[in-house]
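Margin note from the TA: students keep mixing up input and output lines. Inputs are the sequences; the output is the structure of the whole complex. Example:
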Amino acid sequence: MTYINMIIESPLLRCIAVLILAPTIGTLLSGFDRKFTARLQGRVGPSFWQPVYDILKLFGKQQILVHRTQLAYAILHLFFMMLTLVLLVLGQDLLMILFCQAFSALCLVIASMSVRSPYSWIGSQRKILQMLAYEPTLILLILAVYLQNNSFLGFKVLERDTPLIYSMPLMFISLLFVIAIEFEKSPFDVASSHHAHQEIVKGTTLEFSGPFLGLIEVAHAYEMAMFFGLMVAFWHTSIIMGIVLALIGFILVLIMDNICARLTSWWMVRFMWTIPLTLSLANLIWLWR
Amino acid sequence: MEKVISSLFGMTHWVLLAMVIAPILLGGLTFLVQKREKLRTLLIWISAAIVLAGGILLVWLSTGNEEGIVQTWQWNVPASIGKYGFRLDLLSFGLESFVLLALLYVGFKIENGWVVFLGLIQTGLAVAAHFVGEHEDSLVLFRIDNLTRILILVTAVVGSAILIFSINYMKEHEKHAPEGAGSLGRFYFFFIGFLGFMLGLVTSNNFSLFSTFWEATTLCSYALIGQDGGEARRINATRALLINSFGGVLMLAGIFLLKVNNCGEDFQSLTGASVTVLPAMLLCMAAFTKSALFPFQSWLLGAMVAPTPVSALLHAATMVKAGVYLVMRISPHYSDYKLFMMMIAFTGALSFAGAAFLACTQSNAKKVLAYSTISNLGLVVACAGIESPLAYAAGLSIITFHAVSKGLLFLCVGRIEQKLGSRDIEKMDGMPYKMPFTTMVAMIGMMSMLLPPFGMLLSKWLAIEATIHSPFLLVFLATGSAFTVYFWAKWMGHMQIQGYHADKPVEEISKSMKFSLGYLAILVIVTGLLTMMIFRNVFTTMAAETFPGIDMVAKINSLYHEQAEFPSYLVLGCLALGLLFSAIFIAILVKNKNIRPPYLCGENAITIEEELNPEKNKLGLRSYDFYSAGGKVEHAVFSSYYFQNYINENRVSKYLNWISWLSMIVLLGCVVAAITIK
Amino acid sequence: MSKFTGKSPWVVHFNCNSCNGCDIEFLACLTPLYDAERFGVLHVGNPKHADILVVTGSVNKKNMHVLKNVYDQIPAPKAVVAMGVCAATGGLFADCYNVVGGIDKVIPVDVHVPGCPPKPEAMLDGIVKAVEILKKKTKETETVTEELPVVIVKPKELPAETAAPATAKESEK
């Protein structure tokens, strides 16, 4: 126990621990996702560790590239995703964390726009639309947190007595939609889906192969862990309840993924700017002081 | 007389006078020697050096630090001098009349009734303002405080860089100039002269002087927009003149009202007393015309037909800043009038979101930049209207960082336009190979608009945090910031499209261009590195000093300590590490044998050998060429979404204009209510 | 790393010149009924993510460069499965005027799965065989194919630069 306390108390160790743990959590989550989907479809499915195998395999493959710049942006994408997580663990300003996350996504967009591949191009165009769709909702979420804590700092959330979910249930619902977009789940998986034969093949990640695809997958694992962590933070007073809540949220997203077809990107923007945004606004109104 | 002479004795006075007059003289000199290229170039370099050195010197000389508070420097003169009581304000009035007469002359020359009409009203108001009311015993002609210092620095630093850039740009531009274009001498006369006027504008305190410089910048802008001749430019130049003259009328009306009520004739008269609210509002509206906020945005968009250095200097980095400067000057005194300030903030926020939205629908690079400028100016005005020291500091930092980044971006677009023959973002393909230096610099500029440690994002962040208590504005800021990301991302992606090249790209670029671009880019990076420090040490202090009362300082500290803790070194470290790792990986991993063309369903026309060895590629195939039906070679076209099927720019502008006109009317209503109820 | 290569074989399938019989059968074989994902098999859409290339149908003069390109774009280590008789020898189409033959005329093949079309069990078996071969390969294995058996006639000229799309008009109003 003393070791755990030591890790929790020292910011540096905490960051290192999270940087190691987060991809594990993220890959486990996507392993859970694949298993869960397989069970819903009435089959056995791969093992829980399948995403880990996939990533490790990718790192052992030949480094095929289209050009140099692509690699630089892929690395920036990963690094800024890691930074986002580090800032979150350090309890930093939430709005700035959001901007770091946006920049990370932007790096992926630029990387996939820079190759002259039509599929990847369309994928990245849709990825920007996705960012356009969820960004206002996330900003409002953070503002709602401010209204309760009088602070933008992340660690102030942990000092509260009551869980956030009591006061921000609607925000949690709109966060689920944001998460569905971030995890590329139907009906929002317009930019790059996990299914093979969609109209733009694989969208944003199309031109990355081998270890570079591995980098992007690791970044995605970080992202999953981060958003899972955000869901847990909605019930921070009890870590078990938090994880239960986050898992419920995650399973809801997975069920939506399995019962929905992919819809158009414009539908996505219209939807996100109407229902989740208005839900968040409605939630903001009753938090107003 | 002795008093005037003794008042002139300070070094600062001389530097100030020189800074205002020297550019105008140098501009005239350049006009005279325009045919002799070497001399002309030398003169431009000298002017750039003088503007830069003088600006920094002026700021340094005028800064006296006493008891930890940066002092305001003033130039006081007695109202009348000499045996016969020669009134000094006649001098400034004379200057004002001269500029107004010039405006009238232009109106008559282009035979535009509206310009003449507005000019006549302005002249009438100016004369009336001069003769009504009581005159004060002593005049404060010039005044340099913190806000002014920032604008002086911006004008000097960015202005000199743009001036240097224009040397080669205009030389090239003249070769392809259309029939009926103005001469280079004419261009430089207005261009260099403008710097003097701008410095005069931000330093002058007396209203006559202020409106003199205000109108002079309008005239310069008019002359420079019409530089290349032709119908479209004439129309746009006239529109700019008309809208700015309308702004001039509003401003002079405000000044007149101040004089009628015996409030005084300089900025100190805007004390926040209820009688000055209406004039303050009129001045704010005049500022909106200058800053091209909605509903006055059309002139700035039209002004993009001017040569690029003009767009860079006047319409992005400096002149439009005069408007927000005025708003920031006025707003701290009127925090009691909540509704008034809220409407100001609303107009700004509407421009922020609306212009960012419209920028998404544009593929013309200069228009995107113009909309982005309007958007950022809107954010400054919103910050000024929020009435918190934090927002005020954010506004100050936007003015500074935006000027540098936007100046840089405009110069890059100018260079790209000259080389590609197009300012269309869709045509910017393979830029990293065609013009590696310009692309790199442009990417730095665009990154500085979005990337966390850089000033622009920091300011936006603070602005959002400061608006937390006005829900109305919040929605605008949240959506506007999403739109901002959207249009920059599209453009950045276009700038980075490229194929694989085994050889190292080289770019032919003249030394002066490289110097000015590199200078601004380094400035962007350095300010980016020091953002938090600059913000902590400069802008917050300035904002705290601007808002009177010790509780404000306490408030800023309480609000501020959270942001101060932000570890921006982490972000920078992450960026540096990312770039370092990329460099290492690129050096180790990128080998020719690992290069493959992009996936085109296997129908790539180019083979791997051809991609790697350009000499084997006899047909000149590109990596995005593919075989279509019948063995024909076709190539993929990359185009972004511009919402064209959903959104018509003109119609949306119409709606936005209507809303902003309504908000102007509400603003008037608020002020009338404030006066009558108080 | 070869351990993990065997655990997550990602398959891309390419219909070369087939009658679509093998094609439909192969895709049907990857549906939940046979649950190929329990071996870690993922059906990916493009060669850049794939480990195993499954080819159905024979090669003809018009598409051999496509097959070569697709093969070349797969990062090593990689394996090729020739699905059905046409892919193995040219099958029914072997004597056609335009057919070059089985896919081994263009790219190296690791596993041949006979049948017209093969049974789903045979297909899965073929992929599992390919996985076994894949495990032995390393990323240093030669990846670029040899010269094509038939010379491709390239067109004389390139298309003109396309005008900017209608969305991107310069407006100078």
